[in-house]
Amino acid sequence: MPWSRTQIAERLAREFQDGWIVNLGVGMPTLITDVPLGDREVFFHAENGVIGFGPVAPEGQEDIHLVDASRRYVTLNPGAAIVDHADSFALIRGGRIDVTVLGSYEAAANGDFANWKVKGSKGGVIGGAMDLAASAKNVYLMMEHRTRDGSPRLLATCSLPITARGVVKLVATDLGLFAPTGTAFAVRDLAPGVTLDEVRAATAAPVTE
Amino acid sequence: MARRSKVVADFDAAVAGIQDGSTIAFGGFALPGSPFNLTAALLRQGAKRLVCVGNTTGGPRKPRNPDIGMLVENGQVAKVICSFTAAPRASDVLPFTPYYERGEVDAETVPQGTLAERLRAAGAGIPAFYTPTAVGTELAEGRETRMINGREYLLEYALPCDVALLRCYQADEAGNLRFRRAQRNFGPIMAMASKLVIVEVEEPILPAGAIDPDDVHTPGILVHRLVHIPPAPAAIWPSLKETR
């Protein structure tokens, strides 16, 4: 059984270490704010300058002035702080973000990834992804293993314009958790019942145990 | 000597005199800090050939609030400089997109942190800087990079603006601004980067000194025009549902 999106979030969150500063991209990665972390404490940083936010606000308790980078009305944990955009990205480029978890169209065995421009698009959807990709200590991707029509998203090299070169440490998909090695994806974990052969069939790059 | 008041009567007075060809910075990230009322006034004012700087041109969501995309539709924009120049979901189309694809509007797609730093640099008298962001990507093709301490960096230039349109929570008559929560975002750096800073203010404008100097996010010396936002329906007060 492949992992659900929630299970992908839970698996990836197991990699977080106590005290980490965590930045979550738009889409699937936002599920991570709901994952229980046990006795580990992490601090969620959002590009729009919100440091130390918590879960999404309950209905009726939203604050019109308080969104995360995915436009969700979030809450603030005790000890939260607000900075402006220059300082928020200074924290990113300054190397203070322990991990960014981003969605992606493609991930490559050489550590590149592509998440800002689709084929045929004149414009782009960069947001903070290039800054985060270039300067976070760890870049994790969270994505479906294949496109809707079944084509692999995990490739030897990206076919779309890349977001950053050689930075991806981990890729979590519905099939498992993988680490780009430069020439292959090394399996770190498989969803229950998923075989190595299934992963190989769904991946356009070598997959190693 | 009497203090010259920065408070103007309404949004139309606030945007009066903005010239054709101006570079205009639009504050805001999602709803918080977005100057919807001043943007609506700029649509009425009609300045043309504008260069519009902001995080996004405005999304495909409905109901729409006044944004850069509406200025594009109104024929007022020559170029946008944004970190989003396409819709986050491939199935969506930004109102701006058809104009861009037909070549009627130019666009520069800039990483968000680079956009912020270009504004900060403009306000800080720094003409250019090197950043690790976008190195090795399509955005860096044909541009100057430099190895510093063993790492490659991309040269980026400051982005000075003629006008900033901002929305904040509180202001005093001296122009000191206090933002609330995620509303701060680009506000302070756009104010720093711009020659004319115009702000729509949510709370009634306070007497000078009512905001403790330690709590000021943008000093009044940078701010030129303030307008208090009247209650709806005379002005735009977006509701929570609009980004749901």
From TrEMBL, chain A:
Gene3D superfamilies: Glutaconate Coenzyme A-transferase. Belongs to the 3-oxoacid CoA-transferase subunit B family. NCBIfam families: pcaJ_scoB_fam. This is 3-oxoadipate CoA-transferase subunit B. InterPro entries: 3-oxoacid_CoA-transf_B, CoA_trans_fam_I, NagB/RpiA_transferase-like. It holds the Pfam family CoA_trans. Keywords: Transferase. It comes from the Bacteria. The gene is pcaJ. GO terms for molecular function: CoA-transferase activity. It comes from Neoroseomonas lacus. Signal peptide: none annotated. The lineage of its organism: Bacteria, Pseudomonadati, Pseudomonadota, Alphaproteobacteria, Acetobacterales.
TrEMBL record, chain B:
It holds the Pfam family CoA_trans. Gene3D superfamilies: Glutaconate Coenzyme A-transferase. Signal peptide: none annotated. InterPro entries: 3-oxoacid_CoA-transf_A, CoA_trans_fam_I, CoA_transf_BS, NagB/RpiA_transferase-like. SMART domains: CoA_trans. Keywords: Transferase. One of its GO terms (molecular function) is CoA-transferase activity. PROSITE patterns: COA_TRANSF_1. Belongs to the 3-oxoacid CoA-transferase subunit A family. This is 3-oxoadipate CoA-transferase subunit A. It comes from Neoroseomonas lacus.
